[in-house]
Structures are given as structure tokens and as C-alpha cells.
Amino acid sequence: MPERQSRGAVYLEDRHSPTTTTTSSTTPTTTTTSGPATAASWSQLGASLAGSLVLASNPRYAIDRQLYNSKFVNLHPRAIAYCATSDDVARCIDFATSHDIAIAGRSGGHSYGGYSNSDGLVIDVSRMASISVDTAANTARVGAGARLIDVYNVIGNTNRLLPGGSCPSVGIAGLALGGGIGVFGRKFGLTTDSIRSLNIVTADGQIVTADASANSDLLWASQGGGGGNFGIVTSFEFNVHPMPEMTLFTLQYPWAAASTMLSAWGLWINGAPDELWSNCQLLSQGTYGYLPQIAGVYCGSPSELASVLAPLQSMIGTAPTYSFSGSNSYLSAMEIEAGCSGLSIAACHLTTQNPAGRLGREAYSAKSSYVNAPMNDASVATLIDAVENLHAHAPTVGGGLAFDSYGGAINRVASDATAFVHRDKLACIQATYSWSSYTSPSVIAAGAQWLTWLGANVFDPTSGAYQNYIDPTLTNWPNAYYGSNLPRLVSIKSKYDPENLFTFAQSIPAHARGV
Ligand SMILES: Cc1cc2nc3c(=O)[nH]c(=O)nc-3n(C[C@H](O)[C@H](O)[C@H](O)COP(=O)(O)OP(=O)(O)OC[C@H]3O[C@@H](n4cnc5c(N)ncnc54)[C@H](O)[C@@H]3O)c2cc1C
Fold this sequence. Notes:
515 residues; alpha+beta; Uridine Diphospho-n-acetylenolpyruvylglucosamine Reductase, domain 3; 5-stranded antiparallel β-sheet; 18 strands
């Protein structure tokens, strides 16, 4: 039987007794271990749930154990619990504690590290996916298992929005708990900045509300502390924002202009209005060559965007090979960002997650870093070389570097106001490479070597890394993800999960024994 491991911490422990001030659980909680789980006890657990339990013997198991990233093939949880209520979650936690079984929460299953899998019990929240909007209060209640495309659709239909991310099948829980960067980030902040309150089942099986007045430390930790650390969230209440007019744009350039494009983008975005969000991509597309491009969303009209784009184009000084800009409805903009333009909402889901879904899974690896200021010529040259290096050594792999703009509303939040510490950055850099089932193992290995080389030689180890691009190869991850907020996160972990029930390779530790 897999056993939970106590993990160490880099910081001195500050233990508190758990004080859950708002609880509504009627589920009995126990920390007494009652021995290994038997077939009968699993069956009792299944029968006790309002949702359902999928054991390895169930024909659905082969599909239900999958995560989004198809590189994770070796996933063998003992069971997957599709919890329909917070009480279901509490029962699962009680069961895992009683039988000393490892657990992991799962929302959309998009963890880059595969950390929503467990050898024991996967607590899946996708049945808790209802979304409702209070238009008078400008708030939305969102079940922790809702997928982003459904969040955009329901909230968008009320002429309001929640700042989110790009991928339509990402779960709201993983996105919001770790940050949530998207096209409205500079105007309205991160997804996590819009959390007002959340319901969470803690390690002692209590159903707790965390908001500004009750368990506010748990709310603070849940705003950027990352999924899987403090409990299983079952629902969120978010602030929603007025729908602006929006204009999308894309500019593509020849590779010969890539370095000028990157330099100009850094200077341009540094001084841009909040209404502009943009990313800059330097992509190697295998046999299709390179694709350097700048894209984004402007909260305003096409003519206003044209005047915002003019200084960028003048700095680049080369005519784009492709140029597009046009006004869009919110939903159509989000579908374009999500890569499912022209599909129905039902089709904009994974085939494995929704019977009407048309989207497939992907295999990829990634690494992130941050840029603090516009890049100088030497930095730009190094980054361009890095993409050329990928192209030369892993030619049939798609990948490269993508710079997502921060600033604006993201950076106006103090770095200690929430657990999300990266508040002084110009942009997050994400390096990715992806492959298909036809890609040779040697090319996949070359892509992995490229990421390792990048981490050691190109990325600044002191600039941090984005916890939602969680990176199992990162050794300094506690500081990279959490920086100066790490000691407080460890303290809150010690208070709410002193026995490290919620543990995975990069979970925030509750104890001070050294990682
Ligand atoms: C294709 C793709 C596109 C992406 N685009 C963006 C983007 O535009 N912007 C951005 O910011 N990020 C983006 N991400 C990263 C994404 O935010 C993270 O991968 C996020 O963790 C995924 O959330 P999830 O719920 O789908 O994943 P899961 O794998 O289900 O969960 C992620 C982590 O949270 C934990 N968790 C899950 N549910 C709960 C819960 N209910 N309570 C507590 N913990 C829980 C899991 O145990 C795991 O540790 C993208 C990822 C992918 C794969």
C-alpha cells in the first residue's frame, strides 16, 4: 500500500493548532488508522458517495485514470472518486486517513507534473462544475471542477468575464489556486486575484469556508499557493468584471527580424496601457521552420489598437509577413485563444472528458522563468540562439519560447497580499516542446536535453518560475515558485495539514527538516 510521506521544509516550522471557524461537515472524521483497505471497505466507500467510485476493475478505469498530458502513461490509482458534493470529498479524505492511502485532488487534470494523480485515491471534482452568476453583486459561484470554456461561456452570457487562461479544458481549480494568467490579466489581474471565497475540505475532513473574515490565512494561501497543498477545494466565489469591447491581433515576421521583434516587444509592453495584453512567441515548428509572432487582445476598438500598435511596428521596422486585427465577441475571442474557433461549446472539450468533445490530449514538457525588465541585446541574442538550438537538435519537435506579458493590474497587487509572489515581472517565459506518437524517442530526448540546457544556461535561476507551469525537474522550486511568501505558506500548511496528507513531489511542506 502506498504510504504518505512526510516531507521536509527549508524554513523553520511555525506550528499552529488548526482552527476551522466555519464548518458544515456532518461527516464523522477520524485519524485512527483502521488497517489496509479491503475490497469490502472500497465498496462501502463507493456506496456512501453521492457521486461514484471507479476501481481498476471498472471498464472506465483505463480512460478515467488519464491526465491531459499523454506522456503520463504509468498512472495506476487504486480508485478514482467522482465526488458530487463536499461531503463526498470529506468521506474520501476520512477513508484515506483511516486506511493510510495517498490522495490527490483532480480538477481538469492538466498538471504539468502529473500531480493530480496518486497511487492511492484520486479525488476528482469534475462533477462539481456548476456555474452561476449574481449579476447584482457581480460575483460568480463556480464549482471546482468546471472547465475554462464553460466558465467563459456561462459568465460571458451575462456580459461579464472572469480573467482566465487559454486552454479550454483546464480546470478552474488548478488554474485559480496557482495564479491564472490570461488575456485580461493586465486589465483585471490574475484569476486568483478575483477569488472572494472558497469552500475547501481540509485534512481533518472539515468543510471550511475561507474568505476575508473566516480562515483568511487559508484564502491567502489559496491565492497562488498552488493546487494540491491545503485541501480539496469544492467551489469558488469570484468577482466578475464588466465586459469590455475587445480587438484581437496577430503579427508574424520573418525569422531574420526575430531579435528586433523581441527587443521591441519588451520595450513596448513595458509602457503599454492596461487594456493591452500580448504575448511574443519564438517558435520552432520542425520541418515548417520558425514562427516569430506577436499576438494579443486589446480592450478597446480596432482604431484604438492601431494607435497602440504603431510604435511597436515602427520599432520593429520590418513589414509583417502576416497581419490580422479585428473586433471579436468575448466568447469567440476565448475560442480563438483556446484553439477551438468554430466549434460548439460542447465540442470544445476533450473527447475523454465530454461525449461531445472533439479535442485531443497532448504530449509536451515545459519550463518557465521570468523577465523583470525589457531585454538587452545580449539577452535577446541568447534567447534567439536558444530557439535555433532547439531547431537544430530536435528538428521535428514543435516548441520554443513564449513570453506572456505581466504588468498592469497583476503588478499593482503587493507581492505579499496573496501567495502569488511574482508581482514585479515584465513577462513570464515558457519554454515548451511537444511531440506526437510518430516522433522518434531520440528526438523526444533531444527536446528534453534542450529544456535542461535552457534551465542551466539561459534562464535566470533567481527570477522565479510560475507554479502553474509546475516543473518536476526544478531543484530550487520552493523559492522559485513562492520566494518571500514561502515561510508563511509553510506556516499555513503546518496549521491546516500538519501531517502532510496533501503531499506530492513539489507540495509545500509542513515541517522544517530540510527538503
Ligand atoms: C494546454 C494548457 C494550457 C494552459 N494555459 C494556461 C494559461 O493560459 N494560463 C495559465 O495561467 N495556466 C495555463 N496552464 C497551466 C494550468 O494553469 C495548470 O496546469 C493548472 O494547474 C491546471 O489545472 P487543472 O485543474 O486542469 O489541473 P489538475 O491536474 O487537475 O490540478 C493541478 C493541481 O491542482 C490540484 N488540484 C486539482 N483540483 C483541486 C482541488 N479541487 N482542490 C485543491 N487542489 C486541486 C491537483 O492535485 C494538482 O496538484 C495551461 C496548461 C495546459 C496543459
